[in-house]
Amino acid sequence: MRASRVDNCSIERTLAVVGEKWTFLVLREAFMGVRRFGDLQAATGAPRQVLSARLTRLVEEGMLRKAPYQEPGQRQRDEYRLTAKGMDLYPILVALMHWGDRYLADAGGPPVLLTHRDCGAPVTLRLRCDDDHEVPDPRSVTPIPGPRTVV
Questions:
Q1: At what angle do helices 21-31 and 90-103 cross, to 10 degrees?
Q2: Closest CA to 7 of 145, 126, 141
Q3: Tens digit of pLDDT for each residue in 68-100?
Q4: Measured between alpha carbons, how far is 95 from 91 in angstroms, rounded to an integer?
Q5: What one-character DSSP code corresponds to residue 138?
Q6: 77 CB-near residues (< 8 Å, 6+ apart)
Q7: What is the pLDDT of residues 86-138, one digit of tens each?
Q8: What distances in angstroms separate CA 62 from CA 76, 108, 140, one per listed residue?
Q9: Cα angle, residue 136 at apex, residues 133 and 142 outer, rounded to 5°
Q10: How far apart are CA 116 and CA 137, in angstroms?
């Protein structure tokens, strides 16, 4: 890989949106079905203002959408639901979780195991090319320039 700074970097742009601890913890909970502000706050431990800011940003970026709900006798509130754009982040969270399980888990093992709902087998992530070959490591990949918009 080249040592110079990459202009128009997709990794840098993605991190500008999601590259913060509270954002990933909110997304973790959203993937587990947590939708309401109070439940998100309890599950993440995020300060109220921080959580509010993260939810606002995720909605602005189109990863979450607000859906109104109302408990009997209460005022209307919003819950937060993943969009297709948000759902596309799932492999990233799983990859982070697996890395943490491998290198940072307690002696007792990982706190959560992911299994396939249909068959119960463990869920793993694997990189594959479009011809369905497994890509075992970064040395098996050749970065090439992508299409660029000339201004």
A1: 110
A2: 145
A3: 999 899 899 999 999 999 999 999 999 999 999
A4: 6
A5: G
A6: 36, 37, 68, 69, 70
A7: 999 999 999 999 999 999 999 999 999 999 999 999 999 999 999 999 999 99
A8: 22, 38, 33
A9: 80
A10: 24
